[in-house]
Amino acid sequence: MEIKHDLYLGDCEEILKTLPDNSVDLIFTSPPYADQRKNTYGGIHPNNYVDWFLPKAEQMLRVLKPTGTFILNIKEKVVNGERSTYVIELILEMRKQGWLWTEEFIWHKKNSYPGKWPNRFRDAWERLLQFNKSKKFNMYQEAVMVPIGDWAKNRLRNLSETDKKRDESKVGSGFGKNVSNWLNRSMVYPTNVVHLATECNNKKHSAAFPEGLPEWFIKLFTQVGDTVLDPFMGSGTTNIVANRLQRNSIGIELVPEYFEMVKSQLSPVELFLFEPKEKYENS
Amino acid sequence: MEIKHDLYLGDCEEILKTLPDNSVDLIFTSPPYADQRKNTYGGIHPNNYVDWFLPKAEQMLRVLKPTGTFILNIKEKVVNGERSTYVIELILEMRKQGWLWTEEFIWHKKNSYPGKWPNRFRDAWERLLQFNKSKKFNMYQEAVMVPIGDWAKNRLRNLSETDKKRDESKVGSGFGKNVSNWLNRSMVYPTNVVHLATECNNKKHSAAFPEGLPEWFIKLFTQVGDTVLDPFMGSGTTNIVANRLQRNSIGIELVPEYFEMVKSQLSPVELFLFEPKEKYENS
DNA sequence: GTTCCGCATGAATCGATAG
DNA sequence: ACTATCGATTCATGCGGAA
């Protein structure tokens, strides 16, 4: 299987218009957050945020497959002592566009940004808004199952002895079914609260989220060979993870420095991982 | 100090109108959630929820002190495969009333309701919306400091035991300083994510939330002798905790059965804890 | 007196069935 | 077509009896 990644330099609204309808399985992105300071990169003023985002959401709705999913990682900032309302206004407006607001996951940031304020605690969570095009979308829950809670450790300690003996006897006599049942008991389905630490980032560029975040949703909503889109690529975390998980990916980035950085980082990985492999196999 | 609790039977909108302006330090409540079934207790249809709640919120704004806080525990249900939007619409409408939307805490329910569906995971979190009347509100952060790091999990039980003893000893002999100093060394400020399990084992009556939830916010936003209001009292958890923490409390409940149950449960506690004690001290 | 295990029970949600 | 009811699914928690 050949895994591709297409990286585009430019405004995502314009680039998205060049992509075909119904061609993407998952959109995972963390757009530039609203910012009162207008000089910073991607600093959209809170008052203008919804108007700025909506035409882009419309294009995303078009390129997404009917079975696809859009995961929007976002969190409103504090402005003048209040949480801004642009995120919840955006949800209402996107529904008017035709999006279904299927679910809101919570990313619990275990090691949140430090600090202390007299009237506020540290912000340790972000929204992961799930939007869909139709009620019938693809979801592969088994791909993200997690180990069962600690409570089972004490409970199953003694049972495991009996269990092992029974498993052996059953394997020997041809009853293999129950073994898998017991094995499955060690894994359970997760909830809509995702626990991940922010990555204490390395030398290069600070990513908005750790690799574990897009990884979780890519596994949950796509299969190998599907296509993942990040219209606000940034440091390329989504695309890098998609590539590692053998999903095709599309990335769009406005800033040349970011674009070049991701391009140089991503291309060799693809070449090394896939092209030589096929060549060896063919020779 | 004399701690009172006033319990009212009736519709909270009408009862609230009889309470004086600027008289409450904290409103902590969990109103009946929207429900498509119209026959159940408090079954408000999602489409009518905002209109139903707004006049009550207006009265709450009036009775709250300028330094006070309103904590609203709520979570939207799934309707037709989508999350309902009445909660976020309510935030926008309450701001138009004059409320400040200061913060949104997350209650992470570790033991969420079980179940499995093809397109959805278990819902393991609820909103705790913080509204204020002015930007200058009272907040006592030191009262809710938590043990540092995960290593302290096992010690949490012992610490809470110690904490109780400290509270008792404060009342008794007034020496608790050293204990609190020792505790503060290994304590850090919490974040805006609250981890609590639901209480599913109460044989008496099922409360919507565990005692730890109102306890955390009562400690955070009030001092001993302040007044806590729960306009949707239900099983009275808020008032019972307020009483235990030596805060005055006001409770309003529409259903006579709930009202009588809380009344019979709360009154003896007050009499036993405070009135005899003072009498003994005076004699 | 501990530790261990059985059991009931939750602010749930979906899909099928019935009126 | 649209609404109301019901069964099936599933996991962390704490109580109470047992070893």
Please write the CATH class name of the largest domain in chain A.
Alpha Beta
Q: How many domains would you count in the coordinates of chain A?
A: 2
Order of helices and strands of chain A: EHEHEEEHEEEHHEEHEHEHH
Q: Structural class of the secondary structure composition of chain A?
A: alpha/beta
- How many strands of chain A? 12
Oligomer: homodimer
Q: So what's the overall shape of chain A?
A: globular
**Helix run count of chain A:** 9
CATH superfamily of the largest domain in chain A: Vaccinia Virus protein VP39
- Low-pLDDT sequence parts of chain A: 161-182, 275-283
Largest sheet properties of chain A: 8 strands, mixed
**Most residues in contact: chain pair:** A-B, 36 and 35 residues
Helix content of chain A: 25-40%
- Average pLDDT, all residues of chain A: 85
Radius of gyration of chain A: 22 Å
β-strand percent of chain A reads: 15-25%
Indicate the CATH topology of the largest domain in chain A: Rossmann fold
CATH architecture assignment name of the largest domain in chain A:
3-Layer(aba) Sandwich
